[in-house]
Prior knowledge:
- By secondary structure, this protein is α+β, with helices and mostly antiparallel strands.
- The chain has a single domain (3-184), classed as Jelly Rolls.
- Helices cover 19% and strands 35% of the residues.
- The protein has helices spanning 3-20, 27-40, 42-45; strands spanning 65-66, 72-78, 86-87, 93-99, 102-109, 117-118, 121-129, 134-137, 144-149, 155-161, 169-174, 179-184.
- Strand 11 and strand 12 form a beta hairpin.
- The longest helix is centred in the first third of the chain and has 18 residues, at 3-20.
- The protein is globular.
- The N and C termini lie far apart (32 Å).
- The relative contact order is 0.22.
- The model has no long low-confidence stretch (mean pLDDT 89).
Amino acid sequence: MNQNDTIAVFIRDVKRILAADPKQGAVLELVAERMRKLVADPSIRDWQEEPVGNVHSGQQSGPLYQDESGLTLMHARFGPESMTPIHNHQSWAIVGVYRGRDLYQKWRRSDAGNGAGDAQVELIEERVLEPGDVAIVPAPPQDIHAQQGCAGEAAYELVLFGTNPAGKPRLYFDPARGLAYTAQLA
């Protein structure tokens, strides 16, 4: 099966899983398991196409899949140069690494706020995602994370969003200053 067919089957399976639980509660675990199978597929793992930048650099490849419900599959690259800012996407997501290693951080907002301004966040998990590993970015407001390629190499991923993040304002967090600020990237 080629990459396009593999992705089409993945999307079909994800839609079936999501239809079983429209509130997307525990169903994200099932979607993550399906993502794990996708990124282990040789047609994906050997993908040679390079995504253009990432959303935090102001450059990004177009979606691999997007529909009217907002379900969006993107191809992402995170370099080893620096950690992305701590941020949200205002959507749940499933991250699947297919090449390289990703230093993935999950953060939690510990104050009562939900927008820009004074904000306290704390690191609650840090792990290295290897090829075939997945991470669940929970639904808002706890969809706060940061990523970086590690071990001197870039991480290549497929990321499935519950709603299309393109053009949405997102929050970036500065824990040292106790602030959250809004930014909208293309």
